[in-house]
Amino acid sequence: MYWNDMESYALFLADHPVDQSILETVLTENLGAPYELYLTEAGRGVISSEADLKTLFDSLLPILSDDLHQPLTILITHRSDTLSEAALNFCHRHKKGRCLMLAEAVILAYLNHEPKLTTLAEHYFDDVSFEAMATAKAFVSTGLNASRVAQKLYLHRNTVNYRLQKFIEQSGLDIRDYHNAQLLYFCTLIKENAIR
C-alpha cells in the first residue's frame, strides 16, 4: 500500500489490545493536524497524518504507554509494506516502547544480523530503474543537492529533477526528506556489502 508522500505513518504494536479511545484522545489533544487511525489487529495499527509524527511520539510515547498500561512500539515510515512490518516486529522485540524511523530500524537490524529484515532491505529498491536509482544515490551522496548531482553526472538540472521524480514514483519514497534519504542510503549500503 502506497500513501501520499506528504503524509507520514506511525505503525504501532503492543503486546495486548490497545484502547482506541485513549489513542484518539491523545492524538486529538496533541497532534494539531488531521489524522486517521486504523486498528489492524487488537494490538497493532497505523496512524497517518501530515504532521511530524516522529517529534510527536518522541515526546508523547512515555505518556501514551503509561495511559495504555503497556509499552507501545512505534515505527515511522512512508508506507505499510513487508519491510515496514518486519521492521516494526524487530523493533518490538529489541526496542520495545521506543519510536524509531524505518531507516534506524533497518540499520539496527543489519548490525544485529537480523537476516529476514536485512534481506528485505537489500532488495527494497530492486524494482527501480537503473537511471532513477543512480540519480537517487547521487542525490543522497551529494547531501540532497540536485545542482551538484547535475554536475557530478554531467546532466542537465531538469534531467536530474525528472529522474528524481521517477525514483519517487517507482519507489514510493520521497528522498527529499532526510529520513527517507537515510533509508535509501542504508539499504544501498546493505546491498553493496552483502556477502554472496
TrEMBL record:
Signal peptide (UniProt feature, chain positions): none
All copies of domain PucR C-terminal helix-turn-helix, residue ranges: 133-186
Superkingdom per UniProt: Bacteria
Record-given protein name: PucR C-terminal helix-turn-helix domain-containing protein
